[in-house]
Amino acid sequence: PAMKKLAKGAVVAAGAVGLGVALERMLVAAPRYRGAESDHFDGTRFHNQDPARKIEGSVLKWQMTREPGVWREWVDAAPGPKPPGRVDGGRVRVTFVNHATMLIQMDGINILTDPIWSQRCSPLPFLGPKRHRPPGILFQDLPPIDAVLISHNHYDHLDLPTLRALRAPRILTPLGNSALMTRHGVEHGEDLDWWQTAQIGERVHVTVVPAQHFCARALSDRDATLWGGFVISGPSGNVYFAGDTGWGGHFAQIANRFPNIRVALLPIGAYLPRGFMRPAHVDPAETVEAAKLLRAQTSIPMHYGTFALGDDGETQPVDDLRLAIAAAGNPNFRILDFGEGADLP
Q1: What pTM was estimated for this model as a whole?
Q2: Is 208 in contact with 194 (CB distance < 8 Å)?
Q3: Residue 46 CB: number of other CB atoms within 10 A?
């Protein structure tokens, strides 16, 4: 009888684990991409151009030994001014909303990157990283959005509540991410592989470009969908949005294919501890080096000061960026306030 009871308990436990995995895959995990194999897809998982760049250690080890920098609990900042409805005539205007959410206005087209207005970047509304400041632009002050660019499926970049509220007519994303959005009621997603291009309006093209990163919404879907950045090209020039990325050869590749980058939007936050974060996030010094490789006329930092995702403090990314800019001979960086929009040369 004891053995039968033990066996029954094991079956029940196994059933609970199986149910948990099934619920995770149904409610949280991203649907796995299915398609032809390529130099960065083995038929099951995507991988970076440099597979040797891997995270050192585990998330659990980092969480147990972390030394987080200082963040204010809440910054009660007023929103920035309402952006113009359209920008044309050769002008390029960029507004830093928060985190990696940038409003790009050029050639009569309005593009929003990785939009998040939610209070947390998490599958749960009561748990997970919470914002430390409000979005720099009121949601209702956004101009009409022609396209949204989603760089990958991490919660701080693919925010389903915001996407549902936006009702954007087009959402461009690397391979596989549109299926997740469709599952959760977000329409108009279009998948593109690295170096594939889509047209927005009559004059603007958007190309998905490589990045050094990874994807996961849960435990069972690691690298099941693709990640990347974007180059927006039109009569006014090229704008590069890097998304999330570590250091890699893709910066030089992008510079070769797009030799005239007018504006580069580059991440600087969530870079500590370095051993853990290096394969997925550039640090500020690497951001400056990337700007030089890209030969960008103007570079704008992003991905900092909103969600505490690494051990770097609230202001540390910008402080370290200023030091790196000075050490590199002062290349042209424009550090925008949250909610600030700027017409760029």
Answers
A1: 0.92
A2: yes
A3: 24
